[in-house]
């Protein structure tokens, strides 16, 4: 039904989408992660596949089943996600970075399980590689879509990320609003394009938001 509705408009397009959180290990049993459920990225993968795209889903650890007809690459850390994405970037037409990638990872992984001591614990973290920025810097032919999770000044920060990462579109969502975003079934986003235009997608189920995003990207990719 969906393929008919959208006239198979993604047929033959190669689309890679990242989804979910990353986890950054601290010791043998502990790690740092975030609130991402992966639902928005999975919805994008499902929607694209139903419209005929050849979809690769690079996923951090999540609790949802992969959509049918999508090849899934499971990763854990930001570094693993970087490898999984960059090793596959050449063959893609469109890359959508929906994952909530950790910005920091422990400077070193402790061997075994850390024993508690008196007093406070200091851990040191270093920056991870910004995958979207890397893709923007090495962009050849592909269309590059990033997300921006913001709690304030959504438009300003999203536009900043569009520039800084050389993306073609930034899909911004307000993660401060708990009726949408991370744990919710619904989402509402605003897309910011390179030509300065923007496009609002009102609050609706994530699968419908995914279809709207794909329609907007298709249109923009065409005129780019
Ligand atoms: N991103 C990425 N690699 C990272 C961090 C972020 O590819 N190491 C991508 C995300 O997948 C998303 C976009 O960059 O598509 C924006 O992520 P976000 O966390 O909103 O922005 P940051 O650039 O990390 O800045 P900050 O968290 O400070 O707002
Ligand atoms: Ca971040």
From TrEMBL:
CTP binds at residues 103, 113, 147, 161, 165. GO terms for molecular function: FMN binding; metal ion binding; phosphopantothenate--cysteine ligase activity; phosphopantothenoylcysteine decarboxylase activity. It catalyses: N-[(R)-4-phosphopantothenoyl]-L-cysteine + H(+) = (R)-4'-phosphopantetheine + CO2; (R)-4'-phosphopantothenate + L-cysteine + CTP = N-[(R)-4-phosphopantothenoyl]-L-cysteine + CMP + diphosphate + H(+). Keywords: Decarboxylase, Flavoprotein, FMN, Ligase, Lyase, Magnesium, Metal-binding, Multifunctional enzyme. Transmembrane segments: none annotated. GO terms for biological process: coenzyme A biosynthetic process; pantothenate catabolic process. Residues 11-218 form the DNA/pantothenate metabolism flavoprotein C-terminal domain. Pathway: Cofactor biosynthesis; coenzyme A biosynthesis; CoA from (R)-pantothenate: step 3/5; Cofactor biosynthesis; coenzyme A biosynthesis; CoA from (R)-pantothenate: step 2/5. Binds 1 FMN per subunit. One of its GO terms (cellular component) is phosphopantothenoylcysteine decarboxylase complex. Residues 15-224 are annotated as: Phosphopantothenate--cysteine ligase. It comes from the Bacteria. Its cofactor is Mg(2+); FMN. Its EC number is 4.1.1.36, 6.3.2.5. The keyword RNA-binding does not apply. Catalyzes two steps in the biosynthesis of coenzyme A. In the first step cysteine is conjugated to 4'-phosphopantothenate to form 4-phosphopantothenoylcysteine, in the latter compound is decarboxylated to form 4'-phosphopantotheine. In the N-terminal section; belongs to the HFCD (homo-oligomeric flavin containing Cys decarboxylase) superfamily. In the C-terminal section; belongs to the PPC synthetase family. This is Coenzyme A biosynthesis bifunctional protein CoaBC. It comes from Macrococcus lamae. The chain holds residues 175 to 398 of 398 of the full protein.
